[in-house]
Amino acid sequence: MSSTRGELRHVMLGSVFTPEVPLGPTRDIVITCHASATGKGKLHGDPECRALRSAASVNQIGIPFGEAVKRLCAHCRWPLPTDSPILPLGAAVNEVDSLTIWLDREPEDEEDIETERDAAVALSTGDYPPHADSVGDEDDDDAARDEEWERYDRARGLRSVRHSHWRRLHSYLARSNDAVAEHRFLAPWADGLQSRLIAVLDAERRAFAALVQPAHLLEAAAVRVMPAPQFSDGPGFAGLGAEAEKTFRRAWHEWSHRATWSWQRLEDQGFSVYTVVSDAFGRRRKGKPEAHTAFRQLTADWIRQAREEADRPSSTPWQLVAVKTPALRRTHHSEPEHDPLTLWEAAVIATYQVAFNQKAGTTALLVPHLIAEQLLTCASHDMPVHVLATAGNALPAETLLEQWDYKSLTRS
């Protein structure tokens, strides 16, 4: 069924299509344009365009899209049927052209580089300043503590920015790949932009990975395989009464879940346990300090056990794993895009990358066994994961990654 006048979309073709963009079969589609009677100058979608006001008369003409594209007015909108092939092509061109906003950025100056280095040093000890028992002047101590907290705030903020920027760049590349897959004739034009973006993307990945500690990621994976601890009553739980065991189980659930999917040090998850205990007491105070002390000891035991698990030798200490990292999910209107990856997954992918397939958007990771198991067992639903290398396979990671048919995988 042909489109009707009521099924039109008005598109600024001149701001989307430029002469270097391949048009494929759309080049022969005739579009209606308006031009001055001389036939020279720009072609317009709107006969009332301001650029035509000085023309003695205006003519309406039909012209093949491929001939018109080099003369399209950048300010006009063309009414196109909603089933016009030009519309999905325009959306694809926008996806590829959007890569240009990340290219040719100013290099970082020495001050920025030093800030990055200091952030990496700070975060190597954890997300927050280590506790220190000072004996100096109280005012000086307060000023030093404030300065140290500001230092760690900056470091966490920088890591968050690097993480977000890397994920956004990856998503732009993934969407441009999808666009080219739908319109393969765009590939010669898109290849140059995508290749340039790869260099920017990898630099951002390395900068983000420098702010993450691999040991924290391994310990997080160790938490996942720890058996749930058994509750053993004691005087420290007396204030909780009959709620003691329930509070214990909830504290373990909150702490282990947060620790498993985080890039933070295990000790930095202690606040989740503190919150569970405080909520259990409510306004009651009797026995509360003792309970907090008892749960701090429990948390320290859990951390010790996790680190023992992380340090335990494995018959398969490292594995080559492939992942197809999902792009950020677009949302409606001004809502921020949703990232389907957990912080732990993002940090693992950035930290352990050994190969990247630009066209497929797939990544090969060389990871410790515990991390491989966590990726394979419970990675995000829309992120295919696969063990690449088998015993005796000497092919390089790049080749194995190129051969991986991730589309054949189904995840329940």
Q: What this model shows, in words?
A:
The protein has 412 residues and is α+β, with helices and mostly antiparallel strands. It contains 13 helices and 8 strands. The protein has helices at residues 13-16, 65-68, 86-97, 110-123, 138-182, 187-209, 214-225, 244-260, 270-281, 288-311, 343-352, 369-378, 397-403, and strands at 8-11, 30-36, 58-64, 78-81, 318-324, 353-357, 362-368, 385-387. Strand 6 and strand 7 (362-368) form a beta hairpin. Helix 7 packs across helix 10, helix 7 crosses helix 12 (369-378) and helix 8 runs antiparallel to helix 9 (270-281). The longest helix has 45 residues, at 138-182.
> From the alpha-carbon coordinates, what is the Rg to the nearest angstrom?
29 Å
Oligomer: single chain
Q: So how many helices?
A: 13
Helical content band = 40-55%
Element order: H for helix, E for strand: EHEEHEHHHHHHHHEHEEHEH
| Helix-strand makeup class | alpha+beta
The general outline is elongated
Biggest sheet details:
4 strands, antiparallel
Q: Tell me the strand percentage band.
A: 5-15%
Short description:
This protein is α+β, with helices and mostly antiparallel strands and 412 residues long. Helices cover 47% and strands 11% of the residues.
